[in-house]
Amino acid sequence: VASLVSLVAPLLCSVDFRPYFTIHDPVFARLNSIQEGESFPPMILGVTNLFFLKALRNIPHIVSVGSPPPNSNRLPLSSRSSTGRVSGKPEGLGIQQLSLRKFSPSSLLNAVKMRRDGPLCLMTEHKEAIWSTYSATTKPDTSILNRLIDAGLSPRVEESMSVVNNEILRRHFLELTTNFLAPFSPYFRTTMPLEGSSPYTDPPSLPPFDANEFLASLSARGPGKFILKRMKSNWLDL
């Protein structure tokens, strides 16, 4: 949860996020009472109890990370059994699974299989995957995905390679955030205090912000090459 929230830095996460959510949390009763078709409140929950997969079937996005503990009776992905598979696609949700591996025919088949099974397949075996009802407006950045290093089975190699992968991903999201904030730079550039100015003087006031004027200038400016090459559709639809 902390990793997801930090990816939008320096922007602040404006939704409720709880790294250690349990069934004893007072909010759980309210979330558990959400009926099919009702919107799930905007929040990020970190859980280890797989009971939430059954209890909160209306949750729109599920991210599974990490490795199962050594004493776990859940099978790893590499030793999957052909029997006992749970058909776990939540009712009423069009789940899309996004593979984080390099693109290949085998990874495509695995993605289709996990999309069909749904997140309830985590009840029988652990796998790192994403299920989401969100229809992406941007294309997968294959240049970033192909730079990520598969650490293999060695814990020592996995630890060192995770540092490299973390740096690649954080640089990528920092670039995304920087490009997202670029249209707002005129509102801050002219109000920055001069170097060497007294810290006791009043800070300069921000220029007035007009939403219609900003959107008109944004439409004329365009999204820029960085975002345009990643778009699936007209960026103004955002």
UniProtKB/TrEMBL annotation:
One GO molecular-function entry: guanyl-nucleotide exchange factor activity
TM spans (from-to): none
Bias (Low complexity): 72-82
Gene Ontology cellular component list: recycling endosome
Ranges of residues in domain UDENN: 1-238
Region (Disordered) location: 69-91
Family stated for the protein in its record: Belongs to the DENND6 family.
Protein name listed in UniProt: Protein DENND6A
Native source species: Trifolium medium
Lineage per the UniProt record: Eukaryota, Viridiplantae, Streptophyta, Embryophyta, Tracheophyta
